[in-house]
Design goal:
mainly alpha, disordered N terminus, ARM-like, about 600 residues, Leucine-rich Repeat Variant, disordered C terminus, single chain, Plakophilin/d_Catenin, cytoplasm, ARVCF delta catenin family member
Length: about 600
């Protein structure tokens, strides 16, 4: 390479002519690169030389050098580190603004591979040389689909690092929404314009962008509020999900990302939305039905069987009164759409149609969040889930083999059970499935649920039997006491033991049920706690709400590296942990959820 002065093409051409003179039989055919490599003067450039070529005055040399770096960095953390230490990252970032498409495309491809992986120093290096604003500028400038895939893929990789999330929001949120989310979702800003809403385009660009926003939406209250207030974002995401349900396309990665974003944005919505104090919670949580015509005498209830005694679905149900939604003077839009009762039907459709466990968990988590608040809209959500026949859908998912699905559903049922009418129905129809998921002491059920899931189920059972002797009786009849006593005495988990102890003490407190317990061979000693006593009630006197599940951010999940065209593209998925954020309310009962 020391002999290459200027364009290396002329060097190769000269060598080719020389070989053709030396080997006359090859004059009629192209001399292969392998034959050239055999020449003793040929060698591969080292990494420092490749990085130097990025600053070569000729554009083809720049693009070829960037493409070679993209190839070298594919799945090679050592090379990525060397590129960073040799100051190659600032040069690549500078090429993002190059006017030639071939140059900025290859540079972006190299940055995408460099930004992929667990080494956060590479991501920080891109940030330190203003790589995030440069990527956003390139997204605005280029209409080339491949370039847009590379840009959004790089931003998705960068968004997995906590310190970069707010920077991505500050520099790119509105651009990502306007350039990708809205046009690809098919939603239109102006409802009066002639063009009707279009079908969603499930492109790689949309997947990358929704994955990026999924990550940044887990950054905290400020990030969530910025996304909620981003014009058109919530509307477009909901439209995309409605399109997915309508066309039965509910299992792809983009749908998963969209549901996870909405789940994150619904977290603490009752605390963080401006003007939430204008919607106080109905007195004593007496959440009624949503009205409607009275059903026929033998018509099935929402679980498919005959109505339980005392069940009504119309204005005659005086025990619960009627539920009057706030009157609307104009259509809801933006962040208001997050907590409208109409969104319940969308989440229930996803829970019914999707086979993707992450999507199921996120949809159940969204309902969990929306039912968790101390304000009127949470009461409306709890009643709407019942009206839309959502309780049987959730109960069915307790039989899922997905641990996190069972956990999210159990917590959602717990929040929904704060509604007295829901509590009666859940106690009648869900108790058997809840109990079946419990281990018998140290022996786990066939699904081998994690400890957090077992605790969630126990807390849900506790909510269901609190202030409900009938539900407690159903728990006894469901042969749950043996499992609860075994967990209380033998579980290695302090949290499981404490949760089981709370349930046992609540059951024992119902004196009318003790005869049944004695007949079953149980006595007071079986119900003594092995940890601290009865659960403390919240100082406010209100029922507990599960409000602590935060968004499951995906670090490097789904962002695949790209390589030069000579290497087949492969995808790698790295399992991510839950974000360590200080947004969890540790006091028992209740939960909110987070992807």
């Amino acid at each position: 390479m020391s002999q290459v002065d200027g364009d290396p093409t002329s060097f190769f051409q000269a060598m080719s002519r020389a070989q053709m003179l030396q080997f006359p039989h090859k004059r009629c055919s192209m001399v292969s690169l392998d034959s050239i490599r055999k020449d003793p003067r040929w060698r591969d450039p080292n990494l420092r030389e490749v990085i130097t070529m990025l600053s070569h005055p000729m554009d083809p040399v720049k693009s070829n050098a960037a493409a070679y770096l993209q190839h070298l960095c594919y799945e090679n953390d050592h090379i990525k580190q060397d590129v960073r230490q040799l100051k190659g990252v600032p040069v690549l970032v500078g090429l993002l603004d190059h006017p030639k498409a071939e140059v900025h495309r290859k540079a972006c491809g190299a940055l995408r591979n460099i930004s992929y992986g667990k080494d956060h120093h590479n991501k920080v290096a891109i940030k330190n040389c203003d790589g995030i604003p440069a990527l956003v500028r390139l997204l605005r400038k280029s209409n080339n689909m491949e370039v847009r895939e590379l840009v959004t893929g790089t931003l998705w990789n960068l968004s997995s690092l906590e310190p970069l999330k707010m920077m991505i929001i500050n520099h790119g949120l509105q651009t990502l929404t306007d350039e990708v989310i809205i046009p690809h979702s098919g939603w239109r800003r102006d409802p009066t314009e002639h063009s009707r809403p279009q079908e969603t385009e499930w492109t790689t660009v949309f997947k990358n962008t929704s994955g990026c926003l999924r990550n940044v939406s887990s950054d905290g209250a400020d990030a969530r509020q910025r996304l909620r207030e981003c014009e058109g974002l919530v509307d477009a995401l909901l439209h995309a999900l409605q399109s997915a349900v309508a066309h039965k396309e509910t299992d792809n990665k983009s749908v998963e990302n969209c549901v996870c974003i909405l789940r994150n944005l619904s977290y603490h919505v009752h605390k963080e939305v401006p003007g939430a104090e204008k919607f106080p919670e109905p007195v004593a949580n007496q959440v009624p039905g949503l009205g409607g015509n009275q059903k026929k005498k033998n018509e099935a209830d929402c679980f498919g069987g005959k109505k339980p005694k005392g069940w009504r679905n119309g204005p005659s149900d005086k025990k619960y009164g009627t539920l009057d939604l706030p009157k609307r003077t104009e259509p809801m839009k933006g962040l208001e759409l997050l907590y409208q009762p109409e969104v319940v039907r969308l989440y229930l459709s996803l829970l019914t149609c999707s086979q993707n466990h992450n999507t199921l968990e996120a949809a159940a988590g969204a309902l969990q969040n929306l039912a968790a608040g101390h304000w009127a809209w949470s009461s409306y959500i709890r009643a709407t889930v019942r009206k839309e026949k959502g309780l049987p859908v959730l109960v069915e998912l307790l039989r899922s083999d997905g641990d996190k699905v069972v956990r999210a559903v159990a917590i959602a049922l717990r929040n929904l059970a704060i509604d007295r009418r829901n509590k009666d129905l859940i106690g009648s129809y869900a108790m058997r499935d809840l109990v079946s998921n419990l281990p018998c002491g140290q022996q786990r059920p066939a699904k081998n649920l994690e400890g957090d899931t077992v605790v969630a189920i126990l807390n849900t059972i506790h909510e269901i039997i609190s202030d409900s002797p009938e539900n407690a009786r159903g728990l006894i009849q469901g042969h749950a006491i043996q499992k609860l006593v075994a967990i209380n005495k033998t579980s290695q988990s302090g949290r499981e033991t404490k949760a089981a102890s709370h349930v046992l003490q609540t059951v024992w407190a119902y004196k009318d049920l003790r005869n049944s317990l004695y007949k079953g061979g149980w006595n007071k000693s079986h119900f003594k706690p092995t940890t601290s006593g009865m659960p403390k009630k919240p100082k406010s006197g209100k029922s507990g709400y599960d409000d602590i599940t935060l968004p499951l951010m995906e670090k490097n999940q789904g962002h695949h590296e790209t390589v030069a065209s000579s290497i087949p593209e492969r995808k790698h998925f790295i399992r991510a942990g839950r974000p360590a954020v200080g947004l969890v309310e540790r006091k028992p009962p209740p939960l909110d959820s987070w992807v």
